[in-house]
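Q:
My hope is that you can spare some time for a protein that puzzles me. I hope you can help me see how the letters and the tokens relate. Thank you; the sequence and its tokens follow:
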Amino acid sequence: MLVRIGSLDEALQVLQGVDELGQGRTHATYSARLAGRRHLVLVAEQGGELVGFKVGYALDRRRFYSWVGGIHPAHRRQGIAQALLDTQQRWASAQGYGCIEVKTSQAFPQMVALLERNGYQRLGVVEGKLLYRRAL
């Protein structure tokens, strides 16, 4: 498996196969969210096929927000989400961010478990989502 910096188009290509994240996010909605912000788009490839992605952006000079990510259902439980998370954390730390924040839902128990396994602390509920933070 290869994790690398990718494009919004590549992330959207994977997103199309991740039904539980909902549709309606387009290149325009991603671009609007990321406009004027330092951001990172990661993709995971297996055998030349895009199988996962993770997109995040700077909230400020010290905090990086892990916005959205997903793994194609046929490629889950293979360590891809962990590899994307590890790569994002290394990148954010190298860029000088002091922490990563993530919002998720109880509807995604695998994501909650991944965050908690990796030392993310639950801070509470914001806008109906669970807010997690990990110091880098």
Remarks:
- The first strand starts at residue 2 and ends at 5.
- The helical segments are 8-15, 27-34, 80-94, 109-117.
- Residues 60 and 97 are 9 Å apart (CA to CA).
